Amino acid sequence: MKQQLSIVKIGGNVIENQVELEQFLLNFSKLEGLKILVHGGGKLATKLAGQLGIDSQMSNGRRITDAKSLEVITMVYGGLTNKNIVSKLQALGTNALGLSGADGNSIQAHKRPVKDIDFGFVGDIDGINADFLNSVLSTGITPVFCAISHDGKGQLLNTNADTIASEIAIGMSPIFDSTLYYCFEKKGVLKDVEDENSVIQHINTETYSDLLQQKVIADGMLPKMENCFHALNNHVSKVCIGDISMLQPNTKLFTTITL
Amino acid sequence: MKQQLSIVKIGGNVIENQVELEQFLLNFSKLEGLKILVHGGGKLATKLAGQLGIDSQMSNGRRITDAKSLEVITMVYGGLTNKNIVSKLQALGTNALGLSGADGNSIQAHKRPVKDIDFGFVGDIDGINADFLNSVLSTGITPVFCAISHDGKGQLLNTNADTIASEIAIGMSPIFDSTLYYCFEKKGVLKDVEDENSVIQHINTETYSDLLQQKVIADGMLPKMENCFHALNNHVSKVCIGDISMLQPNTKLFTTITL
Q1: Which of A86, A106, A111 to mutate to test the interface with B (most CBs of B within 10 A)?
Q2: Site from A21, A74, A134 to mutate, B interface, most B CB atoms within 10 angstroms
Q3: Which of A15, A97, B54, B254 is deepest in the core (most CB within 10 A)?
Q4: How far apart are CA A43 and CA A45, in angstroms?
Q5: For residue A143, which phi and psi values (nearest 5 degrees)?
Q6: What residues of A form the annotated binding site for substrate?
Q7: B-proximal residues of A, 156-215, CB under 8 Å
Q8: Over the stretch A102-155, which tens digit does the pLDDT of each residue have?
Q9: Is the minimum CB–CB distance between A74 and chain B shorter than 8 Å?
Q10: Which residues of B216-254 are buried (b: 16+ CB within 10 A; e: fewer)?
Q11: Nearest residue of chain B to residue A45 (CA atoms)
Q12: What DSSP assignment string belongs to A5-47?
């Protein structure tokens, strides 16, 4: 039987709330077994860019990562957020190791080709260095990823944190029984967006198809769910979506997704 | 016989010159055997602090690291500089791993006690995690340190890069035959500061004492030399001081320091 591995992604809204972040890190540090953390960046990068007079360029509602924006992202995600999370985890007794995809060549990617839109320095993932991550985990160390990959030619690339988490879960599943956790500000996938407690506790391929038809799953939840099923279709055992209490042993209110 | 390990520190003036940095990284990537890189920060942090309206407070010519300055340092040293060096080394075929002292609990320190001056979030090193660094090196990976340590209680600390390099060299010397390289903008320790080529090729305890009396070694070179002899007095085999060409196999003009 394969050893269990938890891959936990926390979103920007959790990171920016100091109380939520501290509670999340406490829960994460208590989570038993091997684990990997992936953090998003949140609005800190946008705020810093604003202070530096760097326009966050958008195209059809999607952010463009130009050279200056990439510098800001590298400073905020790779530096400030990542190192602070690592030092806080150390204080909680979790021996953490902060990583970008360049470190240990852990996430290989290529710059997204220009089609209709030039997204700039955005990376689409080619592969995960499972051997490296396995060797880190085997020494009792917990990898903590920021949402940056690299192209192997000296270029760092901004990469979606949800995608990094699912690709790590997929890349590690030949070796581990991987569970992917998406931790965000809501208790799970909601039946009614107006009702915070209307959590759908279990979704599978069949019920997902119904939820799509009923338009219960829409907008920002759509790419997240696509990431989930992409992971499940590639040997990840289970995906869970919920708020920071999801990692506590007695919490029952969150969404579990299986095939 | 112990295996050889090179600990190389590059200064801020090299980092800020893109051409020098690229040449240095090429030389470093070609350096044979196990190696560790430590980089300073340079003026980028001061520049960013200025752009953000953060005053770099000084006391008797020495920088005070307040909370805002520490954030800037964490962004610039731990994020921008460190991740860019790592990605460039990957492109040169060196499998690099960027680290602060919090990562893998690799550099333990305490906040400098307040005596005459409160230096703020500045760390004095207590120890190096030699087991962790040894396990990283044994998998063919090259650690790349920024000048940040941590106190194990969740606090990152700004720490002098020269000191980090010498403490790593000392901490690794029970396991390795360590050589410490200080790479900066000059060809070595100069007999005459006006003459760039007046390099003193060999210094030992005896000649050092003479050089001190003759006041050949003064100002900024004094703490650097103290770091060198501190390392040599603690089982580091050899210290070399020179410019980026020092790492090339045929370069003869640099300073070698032994006991």
Answers
A1: A86
A2: A74
A3: A97
A4: 5
A5: -70, 140
A6: 41-42, 63, 158
A7: 156
A8: 999 999 999 999 988 899 999 999 999 999 999 999 999 999 999 999 999 999
A9: yes
A10: bbeeebeebbebbbbbbeeebbbbbbbbbbbbeeeeeeb
A11: B75
A12: EEEEEE-HHHHH-HHHHHHHHHHHHH--SEEEEEE--TTHHHH
- Asked whether the beta carbons of residue A150 and residue B87 sit closer than 8 angstroms, the reply is yes
Q: What is the pLDDT of residues B108-127, one digit of tens each?
A: 999 999 988 899 999 999 99
The distance of B168 to chain A (nearest Cα, Å) reads 18
The yes-or-no verdict on residue A61 having pLDDT over 70 is no
CB under 8 Å to B108, separation ≥6 — which residues? B101, B125, B126, B127, B128, B129, B149, B150, B151, B152
For chain A, the domains span 3-185
State pLDDT tens for residues B28-66: 999 999 999 999 877 899 899 999 999 878 776 677 899
Q: Would you list the DSSP string of B199-213?
A: B--EE-HHHHHHHHH
State the DSSP code for A217: S
Contacts with A156 from chain B: Cβ below 8 Å: 83-84, 87
Instruction: Look up tokens 């700004």; give the residue.
Output: B158
Question: What is the rounded distance in angstroms from the CA atom of residue B159 to the CA atom of residue B156?
Answer: 9
User: What pLDDT score does B61 carry?
Assistant: 66
Q: What is the CATH number of domain A3-185?
A: 3.40.1160.10
User: Is there a contact between A87 and B102 if contact means CB atoms under 8 Å apart?
Assistant: yes
Tally: H helices and E strands in chain B: 9, 14
CB-based contact A96 B102, cutoff 8 Å: yes
- Tell me the CATH number for domain B3-257: 3.40.1160.10
